[in-house]
Amino acid sequence: MYTLLHGLYKYLVQKDEYFILILGLDNAGKTTYLEAAKTKFTKNYKGMNPSKITTTVGLNIGKIDIAGVRFNFWDLGGQEELRSLWDKYYAESHAVIYIVDSSDREKIPESKETFGKVGKKYMYYKLYILFLFFIKQIFIFNYR
């Protein structure tokens, strides 16, 4: 009887939950993307002013609930010395969003190489991957 009640309680209260990594090189716009998503999908959330967003050292966490599903976003720092930390998050993730700032042409070859490494992890862990390629200035302007 307890098992039946516990199962019913979980069915009524517990949400499906997914963990999504947001990756890309430093200064690509990962945190800006996360703030824009939280602003769009979280009621009464004003969001951070894009001019006040600083370089991520470590991890930013964002949670968005849509239609009874919770999406947990892990925005990881993109500096070269922090990328080794990404490996610790793949196994717990369901998907990866990889962001490239197309206006920073000097970093595109490095971003392509890094994306290739992420792609290998994606294949190993069988993750879904979304590749976002945007001009950060236009994105920030539209986000405000």
UniProtKB/TrEMBL annotation:
Summary of subunit composition and partner proteins: Interacts with SYS1.
Annotated function: Trans-Golgi-associated GTPase that regulates protein sorting. Controls the targeting of ARL1 and its effector to the trans-Golgi. Required for the lipidation of chylomicrons in the intestine and required for VLDL lipidation in the liver.
GO cellular component, one term: Golgi apparatus
Biological processes, Gene Ontology terms: Golgi to plasma membrane protein transport; intracellular protein transport; protein localization to Golgi apparatus; system development
Residue positions binding Mg(2+): 31, 56
Keyword hit for Magnesium: yes
UniProt cross-references to SMART domains, sorted A to Z: ARF
Origin: domain of life: Eukaryota
PANTHER family registered for this protein in UniProt: ADP-RIBOSYLATION FACTOR-RELATED PROTEIN 1 (PTHR45909:SF1)
Protein name: ADP-ribosylation factor-related protein 1
Entry's transmembrane regions: 125-143
Gene3D superfamilies the UniProt entry points to: P-loop containing nucleotide triphosphate hydrolases
SUPFAM superfamilies per the UniProt record, alphabetical: P-loop containing nucleoside triphosphate hydrolases
Keywords: GTP-binding, Magnesium, Membrane, Metal-binding, Nucleotide-binding, Transmembrane, Transmembrane helix
GO molecular function: GTP binding; GTPase activity; metal ion binding
Keyword Metal-binding part of the UniProt annotation: yes
Positions contributing to GTP binding: 24-31, 78
